[in-house]
Amino acid sequence: MRAEVIVDLSAIKHNVELLKKTAGTKLLAVVKADAYGHGLVPVAKAAISAGADYLGVALLEEAIALREAGIEAPILAWLVQPGSDFKKAIELDIDVAAASLKALQEISDASESKKARVHLEVDTGMTRGGFLSEWDQLTAEHLKNVEVVGIFSHFARADEPGEAQNDEQLARFNDMVERVRSFGFTNVIRHLSNSAATIKNHAAAFDMVRTGIAMYGLSPDVKTLGNSQSLALRPAMQLRAAMYLVKDVPADTPVGYGASESTTADTKLGVIAMGYADGIPRIAHGAGVWSAGKKAFSIGRVSMDQFVVDLGAQSKAQSGDWVVIFGNGSHGEFTADDWGAASQTINYEIVTRIGPRVPRIYAAHVY
Ligand SMILES: *Cc1c(COP(=O)(O)O)cnc(C)c1O
């Protein structure tokens, strides 16, 4: 093996407990996209054991995979387009989001002796999913064949708690909830908050929060909300790889495709067996690995399966050593936040893009 993701499920459990306590409501653990790259089923089980009330996924396929793994907790799938297999959702007790009259019609049609469990998704200002222009056409009649379990919406700027748009979305959500209540659905689960709102906007907690990134121990926005440590979150993912080759090179040696960088002094280089096909961003500049007790920055372009780091002339590293690409930072290693900053992106993208050929191992982190 040459690279592995090590997921510390006890960190996930800690984060779920912390977030649930912060919210003071039910908690939906967002496990879409292979649990943000951490592994769908193990994370789902850990979240439930730590008190998560619901699981949330984007795709119906993801929800079906959870049921096939024997998970019985309530599951909501919210990216279910018209044409989806709603009968299967009903059969497997998978809650589905409805965001259009067309989808609602199909969901109704699929409901026979057993009714579909539906969460109405409403657009309060994110301008992505959810009812908007069709909302005023929705009547109790459209809903008579389904079980309306919930109503939800999504914040666009929860990571900027001072922005007026948050208050506007909250007010609009309350209006939309009132409308559904006026149809006689007074007992629906209202949910609006993502991780950032769970942490910073208690007024938006309603009956349930939907936490994704924070459950994995990462900050929704390092600049505006602080980092994992200041939020008392524990990053669950550590990425390690083999440094399959260490070599001495003189100063002014060009490194990699395009010779985009050269060594500035006589040094040792380490070649890491992971590349952009595994999710290491090709544009990363200013991150690297933790090797032999110190940081070594990447040098030259990231290749498909490998990248090179400058270990420094004094490094004790040897061919075949394992290095930490990112972890929770507690030993001085780079974090997913660092890799995000070095790649002009966010920690979400760093963890979710790690490719399928990197095995996920469930264990305590190693250094
Ligand atoms: C992905 C997603 C979330 C989780 O967002 P985080 O910022 O990761 O907490 C919550 N709700 C919906 C609808 C989502 O798509």
TrEMBL record:
Pathway: Amino-acid biosynthesis; D-alanine biosynthesis; D-alanine from L-alanine: step 1/1. InterPro entries: Ala_racemase (IPR000821), Ala_racemase/Decarboxylase_C (IPR009006), Ala_racemase_C (IPR011079), Ala_racemase_N (IPR001608), Ala_racemase_pyridoxalP-BS (IPR020622), PLP-binding_barrel (IPR029066). The modification N6-(pyridoxal phosphate)lysine is found at residue 32. Residues 236-363 form the Alanine racemase C-terminal domain. The active site is at 32 (proton acceptor), 257 (proton acceptor). GO terms for molecular function: alanine racemase activity; pyridoxal phosphate binding. Gene3D superfamilies: Alanine racemase, Lyase, Ornithine Decarboxylase, Chain A, domain 1. GO terms for biological process: D-alanine biosynthetic process; peptidoglycan biosynthetic process. Its EC number is 5.1.1.1. The keyword Isomerase applies. Its cofactor is pyridoxal 5'-phosphate. Keywords: Isomerase, Pyridoxal phosphate. GO terms for cellular component: cytosol. SMART domains: Ala_racemase_C. The keyword Isomerase applies. It catalyses: L-alanine = D-alanine. Transmembrane segments: none annotated. Substrate binds at residues 128, 304. Pfam families: Ala_racemase_C (PF00842), Ala_racemase_N (PF01168). NCBIfam families: alr (TIGR00492). Catalyzes the interconversion of L-alanine and D-alanine. May also act on other amino acids. Belongs to the alanine racemase family. PANTHER family: ALANINE RACEMASE, ALANINE RACEMASE, CATABOLIC-RELATED. This is Alanine racemase. It comes from Candidatus Planktophila sulfonica.
